[in-house]
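Throughout our pipeline, every protein is held as a single compact record rather than as scattered files. Such a record has a labelled line for the sequence and another for the backbone structure tokens. The remainder of this section carries one protein's record, kept here as part of the documentation:
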Amino acid sequence: MPKNEIKTSNSGFPYKPARLAIPKNSAGQTDLTKTWYISYYIFSEITGKLERQRKEGEINSYKTIADRKTAGKQLVDDINLLLQNDYIIQKPNQEPENTSLETNEVDSNLPFG
């Protein structure tokens, strides 16, 4: 899968799938001393754009390359499933416009008022 591929969720939100970033040393070998992470882009209702997210999870607690790759693949699969199923950054909930207790007064024109 290309790094910059933009996909669409079930409800039409754009996203870039998660991928595991595996750091290399100067000799081009996989490096366990550096931080491994998952990178993905998620749609934000707040900005109306894709926003980059970077998650480490528990990947770096594993001591072997094979274990880190296994944990990373599982995390990538989990994140991609969430993105496909409309996981987005939502606008914060807005409070009701009228929270005054006075709005609960009974209208005297009602038959039970």
User: Anything to note?
Assistant: The first strand starts at residue 7 and ends at 8. Residues 65-84 form the longest helix (20 residues). The CA atoms of residues 23 and 33 lie 9 Å apart. The two ends are 67 Å apart (CA to CA).
